Structures are given as C-alpha cells and as structure tokens.
C-alpha cells in the first residue's frame, strides 16, 4: 500500500501495535541532610545528599558506593524530583547525560527515548531492580509522584540483570514506607485546565514499630496542547514493610493506575515520492503540518495497569544475606483512533511475572576482600492483542478482526565477585540465560499461524578501577548484553533477540570536603539485531539492524552548603548503521544528535527577609540531527535550546502558623519554543510551554 496523501500517512500511524509507535529543600544548616531510601533489594537503599547520590544497589545488586562501581551511573534524586516536578519519565531524564528524549516530539502515549543512541523504550526500564515487562502496544506508564529516585546505568548490565540493552537500564525506585511519620497533601492547577490532587502518607503502623506503611496517590483531570488528547489519571500505590528485627525485612509493593490520553498524537505530514537504489517507488515525509491527524470524537487511549510484589531480605550472619524480589504485573489497553474518517480500535492485554533470588557473601582471602553474589531469576511475558478497522460509523467500535498473541519465558543464573585489594577494585560477573517464545497471529476465528523460538546465551562483565584516598577513581570495563524482543519485524517474521557489547573507560571524582561529584566516560558499543522503528510507505514498522555507537559524557552534580545545587552535563554521541539496507549502511542513526548539553541551577535563600524562597532554572541544548536513516537533508532537525524554570516559597517564613505549607510554580519550555522533529521518516512538533502551580502541606 502506497500512502499518497498527508491524511493517509498520519492516520496510518495509529493502526496496529507496531504502527502506534510512529507518533511516535535544602535546609538552612551548613550540612545537607543525608537521605537514605530503605528497601530490601531493588534500587534501595539509596543514599543521597541533595542532588548527590553516594551509594546504591542498582549498579551491582549490593550496597556499594557509586565511586567504587566501575560503570557510568546517574541518579535523579528525590530533591530533583521535588524541585523540577517532572510529569513523565522523559521529563525526569531530560537533564541526564546520554539520554535523548523528544525523538517523537509531543506524544504522551509512550515514554520513548534512547540512551547512547540505542532505543531503550521497551527493554531497558526496570522497576525496583526487576525487569518491567512490556508488549508491542502495552507499555507501562510511569507516574513520577510514586518514585523516590531513578538510577540510570549506562552500558550493558545483562551480567546480573539479564534481558536488557547494551546501552544500560533505567531503574525506577518506588516510594517505600518510612520509619518516621510523613504526611503530605498537594493541590495543583495549570495549563490546559489541569486539576490534580496528590497525597503521600507514611510512618509506623504499630506501637512496637515493626510494621510500617505508605500510601501514595493522585487524581488528575486535564487536557493537553492538542485538544483531542486527554491527560486524566487515577493512581494509588500502597506499601507495607514488616521489620521484626535488624536482620529481616519484608516489603510489599503494589500499584494501580487508570489513565486516559490520545489514541493518536500525530500531525498530518506532507508526503512526496522517493525512488530507492533498487528503483522502488516509495513515499517519504517532507515535513509536518499543523493539522492534527486524528479526530477528537474518537481518540481516547485508556490504559489500566497494576502490579503487586514483594522484596524480602534476611541476614543469616555478617557473611551471608539472602534476598528475593517478586512482582506480578498486568495492563489492559483500549486505543481508539480515526483513519480516513473511519474508526479503528486496538486492544491488548499483557501479563508479566519477574522473580529474582540471590545470596550475598562477604569474606576475605588473605589481604583480598570479596563480596560475592550468586542468583537465579525468571521472567514470563504473555500478551494478546486484537485489532479492527472501519465498517462502522465514527464513534462506534470496529469489529476486532485480527489477533496476535505471544508468550515468552526467560530463565537465568548469574554470579558476581567484587574483589578489593588495597586501592584496586575488580568486578567479575557472568550469566547464562535460556529463552523460549511462542508467537501466534491470524484472523479472528481462524486457525492462527504459530512461530516458536528457543535460544540460550551467555553474557558477562569485567571491570577494574583504582580508588584513591582523595576521591578520584579511574576505571575500565568490558561487558556484553542479550535481550529477547516481542512482536514481529517488517517481513512478518518474529523479532530475534538482540546482542551487544561495550568497552568503556571513565573517571569519577568526589570532591574532598564538598557535597559534589564529577563523572566522565568514553565508550564504544555495538548491537546486532537491534530493534528500531522505520516509517515505510506511511506505516511505522519494527525493523532490526546492526549498529555502532561511540562517544563520551561528562556530568557534575553538587548541593552546596550555601544553598546552591547544580546539575550539568554534556554528551557526544556518534551512532551509525552497520547493516540494514544498502542505502543506509554507514549512515547516522535517525534523530541522534552529535551534541547534547544541559544545566540546571537551584538556589535556596539561606537567610534574611527572603529566607524560604527557592529559585531554579535550566537550559537544555539538543544539537542538529537527521530525520531518517536515509540521511536526506530535507528532514534535517535543527538544533534547539529549551528553557525550564521553577519558583517556590515556604509560607512558614511568612507566618509561623503556615508551617509545612509550600507554594511552587514550575514551567517547562518556558519560552514556548516549538520546532519540528523528524524521526524514522516522519515529522512531529515539540511540546510547547506548560506551567503548573501547586500548594503543598506537610505535617
């Protein structure tokens, strides 16, 4: 099918799961308070001091100082989340080096992004140290208000985490019960008729203080910059921790979210003919118009998702500690869209189970110290999708005439040894995975075609660092990755697993006597059978390619005693296609700029008549990039600079009777700079200015 009209091209983006992708307080004291997020396994505990994270378990599954982890790691701390108030995962990662957000412009349906030039949307997001299992059209949405922090591990982590990309993982850390009472309510209002109410309650649940609770939630009624797209949400996340003694801890974590956004978020593109090297006539976008490609009367994309699981930890002695994490998750989607004035509908049901059990042993062999980890984990995915189009008037659901289903299981065993001798740190890790998959597709009521896959793969990591007494730690590492993929590729065949490898050299520096750190890393990674999305004749299709990415990153974070907090970063990334089609070999990967940089400054007034005032502002620079893998100049993306801002005031400083109350205003893209962004041969527009005002009360 050839798309000869702009309407056809843009509306086609809402068809089928694959096509849906194309839219595709700082205290006044001289020392900041150190915050420890406690939890058995997963991302906790995290130790953070303002913007500066000093220890986490995300990097090694053991509680290790970040300075001693031979891997590039960035953390979005609770202080940053509270001050910037991100509305989704992309907002939260927008100041993180190596992360490219906004590749699909304004699209609230999915958190689509890349790290080090690699699309990590489906296979790199973890929740509390467990893989967040997704299907082609069933991706879990994130509510940032339910997070304590975000850890970004750049580079392969398959040696301990299993299925994940060569670019790394993003570990989302859930809020957990606090041992001291904490209560908060908040109301918000802002752009596009936004109305929201938040609550977060935590503390001991019994007099003996062996049982603790947390209940976090929100209700939102809002629209978006495209009037046809809603931004409604109900979210609730209960958690309970049982801690009978210092050696044993059990935490139950659950979540339910019901959200509605738009089934299509694309603008109509103008199309023109294109003839490839083989003489085939294709139609490629030559730019976006300001005409919305959907229809407000039939555009709701409702998603209901839930998860429940636990984290258990027991220390048998000072040497041995057992940990287990389990999570069951499920989601249901109902996506409406309009295509050439006819309604279309996609429904998908997804279930997943993740289980990770490991034991840690700490011991010495002469002058050498060991922290060994051995474990097994299991993950299971099952989804069933149905699609239908046309045949009924607008506003009525089409008959669901086509269906797909897939089941995947992955079982892995792994071991890791963190070896310390004097100032040297050697990390060795290895893992073996067994993978099986069954995919079915066909017309409803007919016998489906079936494809089975079985595979096994080994991954590993070796890294060496030298930790000096004055806070400097250079390191080198080599690691490999393996990840199964869901869904099919352009030919209709089931997507095969992706493999990769990376070499990295870096240096970390914690400034002596200061709550500040600097990180820098250079890398080269390769991926075979990497999954990307390509708009072909107006339809977005999943394809697989071999690629190479090289570059370097630098990041600095600080929260100083004078009230100033800083996060600054710069990234250079050269991502190239090694194997796809003859026309694209050696080309730059679509929408990946050579240069990105960001700077966020926040200042909390420490005294005087303005005490209680906090001012924050940020600048994000995204360099020029190419709009398709053919590297046609007509789709070049211009460089752009976006400005964000925040202003807050603790009303207690105005009147002691208002203790615990804070008013805050946040603005993203403050200057309302909206540019066209083209990715994989289709063009979008950036999200415009958004302003949110809030009134918070803590007691």
From TrEMBL:
Span of domain TonB-dependent receptor plug: 67-169
Subcellular location: Cell outer membrane
Signal peptide extent: 1-22
Membrane topology: Multi-pass membrane protein
Positions of the TonB-dependent receptor-like beta-barrel domain: 254-670
Any Gene Ontology CC annotation: cell outer membrane
SUPFAM superfamilies: Porins
A Pfam family the protein falls into: TonB_dep_Rec_b-barrel
GO molecular function (one): siderophore uptake transmembrane transporter activity
The UniProt record lists the keyword Transport: yes
Keywords for this protein: Cell outer membrane, Ion transport, Iron, Iron transport, Membrane, Receptor, Signal, TonB box, Transmembrane, Transmembrane beta strand, Transport
One Gene Ontology term from the biological process aspect of the record: siderophore transport
UniProt family annotation: Belongs to the TonB-dependent receptor family.
PANTHER family attached to this UniProt entry: FERRICHROME IRON RECEPTOR-RELATED (PTHR32552), FERRICHROME OUTER MEMBRANE TRANSPORTER_PHAGE RECEPTOR (PTHR32552:SF68)
Name of the featured protein: Ferrichrome-iron receptor
């Amino acid at each position: 099918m050839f798309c000869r009209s702009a309407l056809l091209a843009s509306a086609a983006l809402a068809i089928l799961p694959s096509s849906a992708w194309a839219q595709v307080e700082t205290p006044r004291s001289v020392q900041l308070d150190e915050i420890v997020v406690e939890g058995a396994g997963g991302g906790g505990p995290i130790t953070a001091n303002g913007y500066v994270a000093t220890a986490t378990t995300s990097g090694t599954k053991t509680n290790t100082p970040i300075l001693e982890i031979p891997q590039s790691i960035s953390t979005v701390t609770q202080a940053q989340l509270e001050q910037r108030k991100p509305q989704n995962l992309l907002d939260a990662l927008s100041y993180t080096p190596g992360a490219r957000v906004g590749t699909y412009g304004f699209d609230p349906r999915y958190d689509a992004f890349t790290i080090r030039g690699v699309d990590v949307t489906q296979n790199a997001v973890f929740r509390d140290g467990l893989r967040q299992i997704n299907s082609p059209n069933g991706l879990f949405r994130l509510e940032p208000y339910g997070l304590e922090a975000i850890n970004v591990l750049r580079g392969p982590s398959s040696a301990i985490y299993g299925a994940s990309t060569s670019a790394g993982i993003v570990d989302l850390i859930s809020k957990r019960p606090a041992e001291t009472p904490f209560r908060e309510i908040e109301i918000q209002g802002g752009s596009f008729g936004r109305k929201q109410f938040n609550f977060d309650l935590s503390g001991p649940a019994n007099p003996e203080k062996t049982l603790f609770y947390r209940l976090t939630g929100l209700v939102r009624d809002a629209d978006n910059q495209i009037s046809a797209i809603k931004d409604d949400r109900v979210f609730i996340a209960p958690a309970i921790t049982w801690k009978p003694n210092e050696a044993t801890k059990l935490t139950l974590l659950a979540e339910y979210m019901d959200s509605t956004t738009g089934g299509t978020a694309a603008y109509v593109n103008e199309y023109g003919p294109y003839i490839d090297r083989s003489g085939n006539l294709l139609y490629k976008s030559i730019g976006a118009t300001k005409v919305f490609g959907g229809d407000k009367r039939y555009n709701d994309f409702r998603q209901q998702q839930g998860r429940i699981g636990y984290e258990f930890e027991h220390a048998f002695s000072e040497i041995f500690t057992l940990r287990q994490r389990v999570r069951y998750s499920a989601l249901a989607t109902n996506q409406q869209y309009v295509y050439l004035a006819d309604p279309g509908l996609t429904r998908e049901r997804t279930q997943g189970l993740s289980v990770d059990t490991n034991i840690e042993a700490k011991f010495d062999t002469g002058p050498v110290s060991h922290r060994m980890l051995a474990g097994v984990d299991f993950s299971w995915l099952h989804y069933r999708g149905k699609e239908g189009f046309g045949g009924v008037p607008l506003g009525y659901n089409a008959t669901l005439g086509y269906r797909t289903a897939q089941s995947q299981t992955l079982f892995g065993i792994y071991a890791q040894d963190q070896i310390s001798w004097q100032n040297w740190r050697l990390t060795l890790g290895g893992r073996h995975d067994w993978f099986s998959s069954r995919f079915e597709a066909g017309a409803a009521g007919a016998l489906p075609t079936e494809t089975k896959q079985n595979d096994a793969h080994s991954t590993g990591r070796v890294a060496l660092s030298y930790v000096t007494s004055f806070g400097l730690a250079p390191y080198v590492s080599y690691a490999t990755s393996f990840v199964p993929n869901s869904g099919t590729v352009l030919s209709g065949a089931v997507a095969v697993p992706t493999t990769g490898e990376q070499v990295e050299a870096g240096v970390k520096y914690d400034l002596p006597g200061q709550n500040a750190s600097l990180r820098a890393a250079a890398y080269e990674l390769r991926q075979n059978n990497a999954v990307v999305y390509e708009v072909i004749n107006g339809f977005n299709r999943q394809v697989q390619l071999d690629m190479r990415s090289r570059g370097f990153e630098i990041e600095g974070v600080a929260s100083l005693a004078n009230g100033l907090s800083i996060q600054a970063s710069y990234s250079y990334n050269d991502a190239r296609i090694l194997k796809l089609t003859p026309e694209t070999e050696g080309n730059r990967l679509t929408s990946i700029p050579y240069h990105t940089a960001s700077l966020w400054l926040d200042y909390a007034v420490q005294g005087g008549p303005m005490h209680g005032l906090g001012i924050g502002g940020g600048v994000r620079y995204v360099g020029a990039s190419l709009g398709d893998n053919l590297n046609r100049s007509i789709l070049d993306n211009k460089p752009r600079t976006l400005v964000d801002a925040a202003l807050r005031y603790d009303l207690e400083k105005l009147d002691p009777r208002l203790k615990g109350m804070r008013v805050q205003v946040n603005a993203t893209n403050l200057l309302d700079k909206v540019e066209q962004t083209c990715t994989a041969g289709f063009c979008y527009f950036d999200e415009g200015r958004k302003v949110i005002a809030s009134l918070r009360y803590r007691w």
